[in-house]
Amino acid sequence: MSKRNARLERMLHKRLGLSRGDLATRTARARGLLPKAVKRDLLTVAEAARLSGNPRIAPQIDGTRVDAAYRRAVAHLYGPDVTAKRSRWRIGVVAGLMTNLAIAMAMVGAVLVWRGII
């Protein structure tokens, strides 16, 4: 459990810049940076790690549910970077605008040559 928490904490630090506190604290500080389902999964893993320290409660932890929550959280945190996705979208928009501008300038030049102005 502690290895999983440490890995998730490193991923939250790397991807979102959350570097202080345990997994539950970092998840709470993530606020709008993570979807609700991912927050729920991270809190499930953090709660299981907290409860695993108690010898009477540890056998009651649902391992399959915790494993599934851990896999979903890791899959989301390893997913595509949102800032890179936005920058690619912006580059695409600017490239489209530049292409349209080049076509418009070529058409204006063709009309000027056709009319004999140039």
Labels describing this entry:
membrane; 118 residues; rod-shaped; single chain; mainly alpha; 5 helices; transmembrane helix; transmembrane; 0% strand
Oligomer: single chain
Intertermini distance: 76 Å
Low-confidence stretches: none
Strand content: under 5%
Mean of all residue-level pLDDT scores: 89
**What is the H/E order?**
HHHHH
Number of separate helices: 5
Q: How many strands, which pairing sense, and closed or not: the largest β-sheet?
A: none
Structural class category: mainly alpha
Q: What's the total count of β strands?
A: 0
Q: Tell me roughly what share of residues is in helical segments.
A: over 70%
Q: Which of globular, elongated, flat, extended, rod-shaped describes the shape?
A: rod-shaped
Radius of gyration, taken over Cα atoms and rounded to an integer in Å: 25 Å
Transmembrane segments: 91-114
Keywords: Membrane, Transmembrane, Transmembrane helix
Account of the 3D structure:
The chain has 118 residues and is an all-alpha fold. It contains five helices and no strands. The chain has helices spanning 2-16, 23-30, 36-51, 63-77, 82-115. Helix 1 packs parallel to helix 2 (23-30). 15% of the residues are buried.
